[in-house]
Amino acid sequence: MISLNRNNNGGIKFLIIEEDPFLSFLVRAELKKFFSIKWLDVASSSSEGLDIANYKEYDLLIVNYDLPDIDGLSLWFRLKRGGVDIPAVLAIRDSDEEQSLIQLKSDQFDFVLKDDEYPASLIPALRRLLESNRKSYIDAILHKTQTEEEWLDALSQTSIAVNHEINNPLTTIIGTTELLIKGNYDLDHKTQSKIAIIQESAHRIKDILIRLGHISKPISVDIPGGRMIDIRESSRGVPESSRIPSKITIKR
Known about the structure:
This protein is of the alpha/beta class. The chain has seven helices and seven strands, in the order αβαβαβαβαβααββ. The protein starts with a helix and ends in a 23-residue tail after the last strand.
């Protein structure tokens, strides 16, 4: 798929696979008249074209159908099977081949005749592929954004529900432990220490609940068996006043 960033940063990346040097020259000249080009490479055989396309990134492929070793259509299919997905325009000599190729026309593939209008006839086909792939790229970004927004909304609703269900009993636990620690109860130091641990743990749970409500951009981390949201890293904007106490004083 064509990246908008690629096209905006220095032009389009073309690969031409054509065994006729003169036609290659004409195609290059035509492209330079109509497109901003980042690089424009030429291969004179299918094998050379396959080698180049497999190690270098391209936005558009112009390939001759009548190549001596592998025909241009088979070459394009071979690239796709190998994971190299380049939109292509196939140049054909015989108009009889049009009927078999029409059904293949898509956002990724087009063809033109090598007639008197060639290579000028390449330009509309290339522009169509560029525009189609730009639209696909934008649609993919919009879909991803919409999915992320829906996911964040679900996370927010979950946070509200968890806070609603847990906050009241949690507040009771924190309040009770604070009364036990600060009140005039005849508790030994060991018991007070255990109560303080309970209170600190309750504050930590409350801190996590507050942080859940402040997540705007989830940051995931790898854990054994999968991935999870790093709640602390994802909620760096939580006010200091909401944090857990740094120290809980135990009465002696």
